[in-house]
Amino acid sequence: MYHFFVEPEQITGQEVIITGSDVNHIRNVLRMKAGEEVLVSDGEGLDRHCRITEITPDEIRCEVLDTEAARSESPVKFYLFQGLPKSDKFEQIIQKSVELGVYEIIPVETARSVVRYDDKKQKNKRERWQKIAESAAKQSNRGIIPEVKEVLRFDAALDYAADLDLILIPYENYKDMKATREVIGTIRPGMRVGIFIGPEGGFETDEVDRAMKAKAVPISLGNRILRTETAPLMLLSVLTFALEA
Fold it and tell me: Which residue ranges form the domains of the chain, and what is each CATH number?
């Protein structure tokens, strides 16, 4: 079943009105007709099973058949603080982490980040990043579209994460797998968990020290050194599987 997102104000009682670029997609790409059914999410965790009642050039009107809480959402809100990588790696990280259930993605400028964005370029990049998040959310039947925030410097990112329930920072020099399992075992439904991932070259020692002073907990991802685009996906996969199981 095709999946679309709308704003809450596009829902009135038992009717949903789809507007914007999705109208062209439904009419001219998918060539859907009145009577066909779609899944519509409000971006706030509710899914609506709908039947199309009317198709016009400007909007798609749908009748709500059933409403339920989005089953695809993780019981834990994961905030990914990703050190900015080179080239298009960040786009891949956004796409896959959204598929794996991340709640919010915060790009972070660290000491070893090669990429730097001025305000204009960051605005354009962020718009593209958000579109990638939306596309991935639709593809994976998410109940929300995770937000990609503006780029933060490392210390500002630590401040942003300060009120989370737990902050994890995978670190290649930390090898205690037993302690890592114990920390992961403390995560419970309803928690908000931050995950800090370094760019190519990882975090500087001083950054890890500052993170630990800000109550971040170092963990190990095993005996191998993972690429910056692999590490968040590996950790999100482990956490999501453990919590959803």
Answer: 3-69 (2.40.240.20), 77-244 (3.40.1280.10)
β-pairing verdict for 15-18 and 11-12: antiparallel
Does residue 205 carry a pLDDT above 70? Answer: yes
Contact 74, 101 (CB under 8 A): yes
- Say how far apart CA 86 and CA 55 lie, in whole Å: 43
* b/e burial code for range 42-51 (CB count within 10 A of at least 16 → b): bbeebbbebe
Q: How many CB atoms lie within 10 A of CB 70?
A: 17
Q: Higher pLDDT residue, 216 or 70?
A: 216
Distance from C-alpha of 170 to C-alpha of 184, rounded to nearest angstrom: 12
Report whether pLDDT(245) > 70.
no
The model's pLDDT over 84-100, given as tens digits with 9 standing for 90+, comes to 998 789 999 999 999 99
